[in-house]
Amino acid sequence: LSSRLRPFTSTIFAEITELARRNEAVNLGQGFPDTDGPAGMLRSAERAIADGTNQYPPGPGEPELRAAIGAQRAADYGIEHDPETEILVTVGATEAISAAMLGLVEPGDEVVLLEPYYDSYPVAVSLAGGTRRTVPLRVSGGRFGLDAAALRAAVGPNTRALVLNSPHNPTGAVFTEAELAEVARVCRENDLLAITDEVYEHLVYDGRGHVPLATFPGMAERTLSVSSAGKSFNVTGWKIGWVCGPPELVAAVRAAKQFMTFVGGAPFQPAVAHALREERDWLPELRTELQQKRDRLRAGLGSAGFDVLACEGTYFLCADIRPLGYTDGAEFCRGLPERAGVAAIPLQVLCDDPEPVRHLVRFACCKRDEVIDEGVRRLHKLG
Ligand code: PMP
Ligand code: GLN
């Protein structure tokens, strides 16, 4: 194994899902929904296959999909992109982020990650020959938030880029406008590239909305905004993602992407275009439904004895295991499928410094109500 990959063991999501399968556990670990997306979108994909949309699509993505992504961002955020040069379709958000690192980070460059981080970020930095600098998010008032002083302290002369994920996996935090403004200020003052992972952009609850970092002053020209259809339309297995930004940055991502996968998901691209364009009711309905599921799972975890942190967006709730007499989240999660028949994800494996989150584990609420209820019923046996 190359030295670039050696520090990384297998992904925690695959490990816990395999444990869940072996123990027939209720999988509240890996974040994927257990119901299908809009029927019209599924039919559109079937039609595309039947009609012969089965060969390589254009390198930057089907024009129809790039146009639909541009229209969504203009309508939702007032951001205008030229679909020819400023929007690139990728194999999920994962490829967009990896290709951005490979296309823009020089060996020796530093990249700032907030932790806990999504598990592919440190690997993407390492594959690009970069060095990560991590900044812990801090729990205050029952929610995870930005530690602006720690962020400033992590940035130095070799810092090239910062990755911002909001709404945030695994914490469920949605950064406030004040927090985003602070991140934007740090990026501007230090001439950083911002790579924003916005795959949960439509999953923000309690009447709040998603605010892209690219909308802050001086940020559009230095931001690559990444998103994906997986979480918005319940198709995590389709792996249709995209990245939007200024032409020279998008060109660098494309330069890497063309030799990684070239293209992907031909028949799914028109289907996602259809969903963005035509399925107008889907996203508000999904948001309402997931907010109810969040509330259901939060109440259930509370009744089972966990202390639950705020979930402002995403699929995820973080729970403190100490009230149940446990102290180590990784140990807890590796034993949970066998002990209780439930799967969850420990936060500490998503950090360089595990200590601040050792007692926290992540549960996913993007499951049918009866699945959530069965998971909660089983968790009650722990207490
Ligand atoms: N970023 C975050 C924060 C995620 O939670 C995920 C997983 N859904 C991804 C990226 C990967 O997205 P995709 O499946 O589109 O590659
Ligand atoms: N994004 C999902 C999660 O955080 C899973 C992604 C994966 O399995 N790689 O649970």
From TrEMBL:
Keywords: Aminotransferase, Pyridoxal phosphate, Transferase. Its cofactor is pyridoxal 5'-phosphate. GO terms for molecular function: kynurenine-oxoglutarate transaminase activity; pyridoxal phosphate binding. Residues 25-379 form the Aminotransferase class I/classII large domain. InterPro entries: Aminotransferase_I/II_large, Kynurenine-oxoglutarate_AT, PyrdxlP-dep_Trfase, PyrdxlP-dep_Trfase_major, PyrdxlP-dep_Trfase_small. It comes from the Bacteria. GO terms for cellular component: cytoplasm. Belongs to the class-I pyridoxal-phosphate-dependent aminotransferase family. This is N-succinyldiaminopimelate aminotransferase.
